[in-house]
């Protein structure tokens, strides 16, 4: 009896079980399919007759549609069968891929892009909530770290595969391949054991904003948005900075960033599970700020590459740590709302940083822009997390340990 009990305990705390491996594969493939078509949607829109400005707008419509439906997708993910929700949205996404390939004008492309964004909103939130069900509670941060690492891999593989297909076979072949990838994800999800339990709650018909967006963790979501601002600034302005300062091969920043992220993220999750979120987040803001200061003053490739290393350690560790902490605070029953709330924070950061950065950089230069953002990371990020965490320690002591 004692041996059997010990084996049961080990099974409950074992991360690398068959369902988790399938979920990890599912999540990575699901993200890769979306990333396959993202880089060339604007170019495809131009080929259908759109202007440059209209093409850029069409490319961003998916993110706008996803942002508006995030709260509803969180509610659905918590109340309804997540496995069915992911399956249906993946089939809808596959249909969207086929419709992209037969779009006969800009109007049809706009309509399909919006539908794709709505499906992506439900799929991404439900996927994150679904994933947490197969991670032992004691290893939640580590398990979510591997999941987010899968997203990093998909962001590297998906666009490259999509661009290769477009250049060698054409737009239509890429869309059809992406559609087949969506159908493959539905096959994988059927192999994952899942038991949906109906949630009974009092006052189910009463409107509660916390069923859509968790006000309790929304400050943490804004902190993930603060990290996302850095992604928006770097993705938008790094190449321009390289051109202005004559730094060649500046794309090594992203290569270095990805390599360091792959090497560090799982170990950071283990550390958070053992020591708590504070040991990760306080250094993360300082290290991320240091990476931005390096970019602000970079005169050569070495400083740019070093900035990529520090950004991976800082922002790359901090954002997943916040998500895992939020999941521990509200529990897996609210995983959908946690995911949607955190995604809203990320969407806000990605949306507001480039236009504000464009104004600042045009008026004062890239050095001022990156230095100002570094100051925000330390002053706003550090102080806001400190205040919120201390408040939670007093009101929810069981959720901050």
Order of helices and strands: HHHHHHHHHHHHHH
CATH superfamily membership of the largest domain, which one? MFS general substrate transporter like domains
Number of E-state strands = 0
CATH architecture tag of the largest domain: Up-down Bundle
Category from helices, strands and their pairing: mainly alpha
In helices, the fraction of residues equals over 70%
Which percent band covers the strand fraction? under 5%
Average residue pLDDT? 81
Radius of gyration from the alpha-carbon trace, in angstroms = 21 Å
Low-confidence segments, ≥5 residues, pLDDT <50? 1-11
Largest sheet: none
Question: Count of helices?
Answer: 14
CATH domain topology of the largest domain: Growth Hormone, Chain: A
Task: Say what oligomer this is.
Answer: single chain
Shape: globular
Distance between the termini: 32 Å
Brief summary:
This protein has helices at residues 2-13, 18-37, 41-47, 52-79, 82-102, 106-132, 140-168, 171-190, 218-245, 252-275, 278-297, 301-330, 335-364, 366-395. The protein has 401 residues and is mainly alpha-helical.
Descriptive overview:
With 401 residues, the chain is mainly alpha-helical. The protein has two domains: 14-190, MFS general substrate transporter like domains (Growth Hormone, Chain: A, Up-down Bundle); 213-399, Growth Hormone, Chain: A (Up-down Bundle), CATH 1.20.1250. Helix content is 81%, strand content 0%. Helix 9 packs parallel to helix 13 and helix 11 (278-297) packs antiparallel against helix 12.
């Amino acid at each position: 009896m004692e041996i059997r009990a010990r084996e049961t305990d080990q099974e409950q705390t074992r991360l690398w079980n068959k369902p988790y491996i399938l979920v990890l594969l599912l999540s990575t493939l699901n993200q890769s399919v979306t990333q396959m078509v993202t880089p060339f949607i604007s170019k495809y829109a131009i080929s259908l007759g759109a202007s440059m400005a209209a093409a850029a707008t069409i490319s961003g419509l998916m993110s706008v549609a996803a942002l508006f439906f995030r709260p509803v997708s969180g509610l659905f993910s918590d109340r309804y069968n997540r496995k069915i929700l992911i399956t249906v949205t993946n089939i809808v996404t596959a249909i969207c891929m086929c419709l992209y390939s037969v779009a006969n004008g800009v109007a049809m492309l706009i309509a399909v892009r919006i539908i794709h964004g709505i499906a992506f909103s439900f799929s991404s939130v439900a996927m994150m909530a679904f994933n947490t069900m197969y991670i032992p509670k004691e290893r939640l941060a580590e398990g979510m770290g591997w999941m987010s690492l899968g997203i990093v891999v998909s962001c590297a593989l998906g666009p490259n595969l999509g661009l290769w297909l477009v250049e060698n076979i054409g737009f239509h072949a890429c869309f059809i391949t992406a559609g087949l990838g969506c159908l493959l994800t539905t096959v994988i999800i059927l192999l994952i054991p899942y038991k949906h339990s109906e949630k009974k709650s009092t006052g189910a018909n009463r409107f509660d904003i916390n069923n859509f967006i968790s006000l309790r963790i929304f400050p943490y979501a804004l902190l993930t948005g603060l990290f996302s601002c850095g992604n928006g600034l770097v993705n938008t302005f790094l190449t321009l900075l390289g051109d202005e300062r004559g730094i060649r091969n500046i794309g090594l920043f992203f290569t270095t960033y990805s390599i360091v992220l792959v090497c560090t993220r799982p170990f950071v999750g283990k550390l958070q599970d053992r020591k708590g979120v504070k040991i990760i987040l306080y250094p993360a803001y300082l290290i991320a700020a240091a990476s931005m200061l390096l970019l602000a003053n970079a005169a050569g490739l070495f400083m740019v590459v070093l900035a990529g290393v520090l950004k991976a350690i800082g922002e790359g560790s901090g954002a997943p740590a916040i998500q895992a902490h939020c999941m521990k605070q509200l529990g897996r029953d609210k995983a959908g709302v946690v995911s949607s709330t955190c995604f809203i924070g990320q969407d806000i950061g990605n949306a507001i940083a480039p236009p504000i950065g464009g104004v600042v950089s045009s008026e004062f230069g890239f050095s001022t822009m990156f230095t100002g953002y570094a100051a925000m990371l330390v002053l706003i990020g550090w102080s806001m997390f400190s205040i919120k965490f201390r408040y939670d320690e007093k009101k929810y002591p069981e959720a901050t340990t």
